[in-house]
Design goal:
Layout lengths: L1 H12 L6 H9 L1 H32 L10 H21 L1 H31 L17 H15 L15 H30 L2 H6 L3 H9 L6 H21 L1 H8 L10 E2 L6 H15 L4 H29 L12 H20 L3 H22 L5 H14 L1 E2 L8
Antiparallel strand pairs: 1-2
Helix pairs in contact: 1-7, 1-14, 2-3, 2-13, 3-4, 3-10, 3-12, 3-13, 3-15, 4-10, 4-12, 5-7, 5-10, 6-13, 6-14, 11-12, 13-14, 13-15
Length: 410
């Protein structure tokens, strides 16, 4: 909630698409903005898309298999199909993508409503399950707590998605904070109530043992009608993946527009007016991530890099309080809010490395720094081999895209 309040100030002060990229660019400069674009385009957004589509495949296939669950290959193939379908929708029409988002968001809320009402009914009957003892044996190791936060905060990730498409929001200075203020408390309430419902029905060991907690809950509470939950969760995750691609496809588009990525990525389809190259790039990298990865490894990989740059974004807000004192701020949060969020970000990045370093986190850190290998020649020195133009022209013809222009901030 505090993070989203900070993003409200940034989004209304800098009403440009790109989210963290635009804010870090203004606050800390082009190098850090480039590194964010590099990591987001090749790690954060594609891994998020891959995680959600793997979850979609898990719930969509689970009713057709026994307790062992669907085979990994089948699950990954369905996840790839979901990515391709969502990409086709977003490339075809912005309006179609937003309608899909609305429909599947309604399905998500209905599914959550069923679980919440079912949990309330169980509690009224006096069946509290192991709610009072679920947190016994909790480990207080700082590194483990940080990794646990990765999984927990992943469920809430998306609080910053609207900032990625600020230029496409009507009256963003009014509607951006309004949407965030409504959505974050609603999501928090729903998720807390759903977890209480789960704890009332299942033990901790049962929840850890099953890859599809919602289905186990439905089998015990809804019995013959349990199929409602996996279908609803599949709808929910499909909608979440659609929203991730819709917003995530705008970042490479904006970064390319600023010269930090190949110009082809900043182009839009001449008829559909969608950022087709950026969407296709995000989808292709997501598919590559699905092939070798599992959900929890991807979450740790995603969360480490994401919170590194969330921290830089909060730092940008703090810096701009001193470097851009005269900037118009329709919403201004107390400076203690971004400072607290920055400290939390530092903890989430540093604690797992210091206490219990994992090779995956080292790979992520190396990947962040590796972005400089491309920044120095192609951005700083503006090296532009002639074959780049040949590739760009042929891709333009193949995808029927053309350059866009950026309206002046003045």
């Amino acid at each position: 909630m505090l993070g989203s309040l900070s993003y409200c100030e940034l989004g209304t002060m800098i009403p440009r698409s790109g989210g963290e990229y635009a804010y870090v660019m203004d606050g800390l400069g082009g190098v850090f903005a480039y590194l964010y674009a590099w990591v987001s385009v090749f790690v954060i957004r594609p891994s998020s898309m891959a995680i959600i589509c793997l979850t979609f495949a898990e719930y969509a296939l689970d009713p057709f298999y026994d307790a062992c669950g669907p085979p990994e290959l089948t699950k990954k193939c369905l996840a790839v199909v979901a990515i391709l379908l969502i990409t086709a929708v977003n490339c075809y029409s912005v309006k179609l993508a937003t309608r899909v988002q609305v429909i599947f968001t309604v399905a998500k809320l209905l599914a959550l409503g069923v679980i919440i009402v079912g949990g309330i009914y169980i509690l009224i009957e006096g069946q509290t399950g192991d709610i009072d003892t679920e947190f016994k044996g909790t480990i207080s190791n700082p590194s483990v707590i940080a990794l646990a936060f990765y999984d927990g905060l992943w469920a809430y990730d998306g609080w910053n998605n609207l900032n990625l498409v600020t230029e496409e929001i009507k009256d963003p200075q009014k509607n951006l904070p309004r949407a965030i203020m409504i959505a974050i408390p609603l999501v928090t309430f729903c998720y807390i109530m759903v977890n209480i419902s789960y704890f009332a029905v299942m033990t901790k060991s049962e929840m850890l043992a099953t890859p599809a907690v919602g289905i186990l809950w439905a089998e015990r509470i809804l019995r013959g009608a349990f199929i409602i939950i996996p279908i609803s969760v599949a709808f929910s995750t499909f909608g979440a993946a659609n929203g991730t691609l819709f917003s995530g496809g705008r970042l490479p588009y904006v970064a390319a527009r600023e010269g930090h990525l190949p110009s082809i990525i900043s182009m839009a389809h001449v008829g559909r007016l969608t950022p087709l190259p950026a969407l296709v790039l995000t989808a292709l990298i997501s598919i590559v991530m699905i092939i070798p990865g599992d959900i929890f490894t991807l979450i740790d990989f995603f969360s480490f890099t994401a919170w590194l740059f969330y921290g830089l974004t909060f730092l940008s807000l703090i810096v701009m309080r001193f470097t851009k004192k005269e900037a118009k701020r329709p919403i201004k949060v107390p400076i203690v809010v971004p400072i607290f969020c920055l400290l939390v970000s530092i903890y989430l990045v540093v604690a797992p490395i210091v206490d219990n370093p994992q090779i995956e986190l080292l790979y992520a850190a190396i990947f962040v720094v590796a972005g400089l290998i491309f920044y120095v020649p192609f951005v700083y020195f503006k090296l532009h081999p002639k074959f780049f133009d040949y590739i760009t022209i042929n891709l333009q013809l193949a995808m029927q895209v053309s350059p866009t222009y950026k309206e002046s901030d003045n």
